[in-house]
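Good day; I would like, with your permission, to put a structural problem before you. I would ask you to consider whether the tokens describe a fold that such a sequence might reasonably adopt. The full record is reproduced below for your convenience:
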Amino acid sequence: MSCNDFFRPFMEFKESCIIDVSTKSHYTYNVFFQKVMNISSELFMAKLTPRSIVLIYKISNPFESILAFFACLKSDLIPFIVDTEDIKNISDLKYKAIITNSIISSTKTLPITLNSISGVVVYEMDSEDYYKGNENDFIIVTSSKSTSTV
């Protein structure tokens, strides 16, 4: 399965809706996909390493987490959503960046503000110890700390 398969419904069913319960709003697939494309463009401008793991870390609005998830896929990144775990407990994941609206205090990060999602910052890790996938990998990353490369 290619990442483009995840985007097919947004192209075919543009008037279908997604409901954001947290804000009591709804978006057509077309509007949702445009938001994904805007975030993806910003991630592209951040020049994150393709096929590297990106933590979507404790973004307070779940809808914005999903937007970031799809934007990572569109940007050829490997998204991993973390809602509750402390970041210190997931260091073995070998991630390259963190997308969050929390403050990450570390000397090994380079912050980049996203304009598409209010209050969200991308912290690129200033380290070469991260997963570097190749173009034929399809990665599944789960919250149970297991990964699979197909």
User: Anything to note?
Assistant: The two ends are 10 Å apart (CA to CA).
